[in-house]
Amino acid sequence: MKKELIQDAELVSNYIKGDENSLSILISRHKQRIYSFIYSKVYDRDITEDVFQDTFIKVIRTLKRGKYNEEGKFLPWVMRIAHNLVIDHFRKNSRMPKFDNAGEFSIFSVLSDSSLNAEKSMIKDQVESDVRRIIEELPEDQKQVLMMRMYQDMSFKEISERTGVSINTALGRMRYALINMRKVIDQNNIVLTN
Amino acid sequence: MAKIYSNASQKKNLNLMPKDETISFLLNYSKALSVIDYNKLKFEALLN
User: Is the ipTM beyond the 0.95 threshold?
Assistant: First the structure.
């Protein structure tokens, strides 16, 4: 076991010095363990192949950039990269759920839990409070129209009656309110998406 | 029952190995990639 670890370290060091053959030995020595590890998480050959490839691309780039710290732990390091890429894969997929054509039709693919999870509900609260703060920055007349329209769900006719201005003025104030809000969002690079 | 329990739950001969093309791609990628150091900055260049 120890012998193999030392050999790994030597191969890595030779590879960094430019010996491409060392990489070939390292890959063939560990490919089965790494591939099986990825497959045990994703259960899909094509995805495993992709993650395996991305893992070694990362390994190659890190080694060539001289950023690898040799501590005799080549395999655990590669496994950690593979593990992180598997997590990335699942994260990407949870953002873009897709139908699985391979197996039987699954009712869970069309049924979804519409309630927000803890993370999303925190983000939603954050976004809403950011929007409120931006609204507070608006001039009073624009803020008034926007609050009545968006938060009190009033029509422009009702707004014009309540504020004593014409419908066109109320519409104009709403328009400028939105333009000003966009400006503030752009200037401050505020992200208002969940 | 005995028959069910004696069945292997998973196929053993999965042959979990990456494709030859993948390995060959990685080796070629490695050969083609060169990192250029310039004033503490590192640039990557892929030469075909």
Answer: no
